[in-house]
């Protein structure tokens, strides 16, 4: 019967996930995504957003977005190459290139799309990609789409990277070889060892690609992880998102002019998907301007991050190897981790558990993402709830 095959597939697989407790029920946020959010009528201190600088609800950006709607309407009207390139898009790209210190930038509808776009436009089945084992899902999908041979190296293990680069080069099987890494890893909050990665890249003539979704607006005074290490001239492709610290939606690739020229004629999400809306682009441009004009928000983010980190550490929690505002509280066992997060939420802190298979077995964690707009009162309240739940569940 029509539909029967799909029905069987869905029923079996959904049931199996539910039986294992792996079916994720999504909470609805009732209102804006700020430092305090409302879920099922309760006000919770929000430590789960990527809205690092609080720009998602910034008054000036809201005003700019509304003005853009009045002037340009709500949609771009077409893909960029047909007639969807508005002067607003070019202004954003110029602003981003200036901000990143690269020759040019191309914007996309999301950070996810950047990886779909750029990896497969540059790499093909005759190539190989050295990819950090903990790289983001969109990098993995972008690599698969390119049909290049994927060579995963152990997380931030430079010796392993070197060995695999040597093997790939000496095999003589590949035309081009790329090394690709997250700038900031989202599960532990650690920063990629870019200076060493760049050295390996120089030794073996690798193309270098850094996806800095969690670094843009956060590291390098907001300019990202490549800037943090002063490696602007050494990294061929820098990916940034406009959806996390920048607070709106979208993504971009920054690099040399000829790279951007190539992506404009060969990257499929650019060629076959409608451009970002005028409101998004205008708000994003204003956000980037705001971050370049003043370091206040970025500095406040780091102060809040360090304050929360120190507080959790003093209470006796294991915060792992974090070097950024992303602060995991490593609980360990999966069930206990989920119980811990559930109790935090009941007590008024919205911090979600992340367990196997997203992170290795036995390293379940509750991840905290403080923002620049959390007040000291909010952070202190969160810490005392952590203390209460930690003692109750005998984690500290
Ligand atoms: C979040 C993230 C993305 C996706 O960015 P969006 O703009 O939300 O699509 C891509 N890469 C990495 C490393 C990320 O952390």
- 3D shape: globular
Q: How many DSSP E strands?
A: 13
The figure for the number of domains is 2
Read across the widest sheet, the strand sequence of neighbours is 3-9-8-7-6-4-5
Indicate the structural class: alpha/beta
According to CATH, the fold-level topology of the largest domain is Aspartate Aminotransferase, domain 2
What is the CATH domain class of the largest domain? Alpha Beta
Output mean pLDDT: 96
Q: What is the succession of H and E elements?
A: HEEHHHEHEHEHEHEHEEHHHHEHEEEH
- How helix-rich are the residues, as a percent range? 40-55%
- Give a quick account of the main beta sheet: strands, pairing sense, barrel closure: 7 strands, mixed
Strand content: 15-25%
CATH superfamily of the largest domain: Type I PLP-dependent aspartate aminotransferase-like (Major domain)
Number of helices: 15
Report, as a whole number of angstroms, the end-to-end distance.
57 Å
Q: What are the segments in which pLDDT stays under 50 over at least 5 consecutive residues?
A: none
Query: What molecules are bound to this protein?
Result: pyridoxal-5'-phosphate
CATH architecture assignment of the largest domain: 3-Layer(aba) Sandwich
Radius of gyration: 22 Å
Structural notes for this entry:
- The chain is an alpha/beta fold.
- The chain has two domains: about 20-50 and about 295-390, Aspartate Aminotransferase, domain 1; about 55-295, Type I PLP-dependent aspartate aminotransferase-like (Major domain) (Aspartate Aminotransferase, domain 2, 3-Layer(aba) Sandwich), CATH 3.40.640.
- Helix content is about 45%, strand content about 15%.
- It has 15 helices and 13 strands.
- The chain has a seven-stranded mixed β-sheet with strand order 3-9-8-7-6-4-5, with helices on both faces. The chain has a three-stranded mixed β-sheet with strand order 1-2-11.
- The longest helix is centred in the C-terminal third of the chain and has 20 residues, at about 295-315.
- It is globular, with a radius of gyration of 22 Å.
- The chain starts with a helix and ends with a helix.
- Bound molecules: pyridoxal-5'-phosphate (PLP).
- The site of pyridoxal-5'-phosphate (PLP) has 13 residues, from helix 5.
- Pyridoxal-5'-phosphate binds near residues 211, 213 and 241.
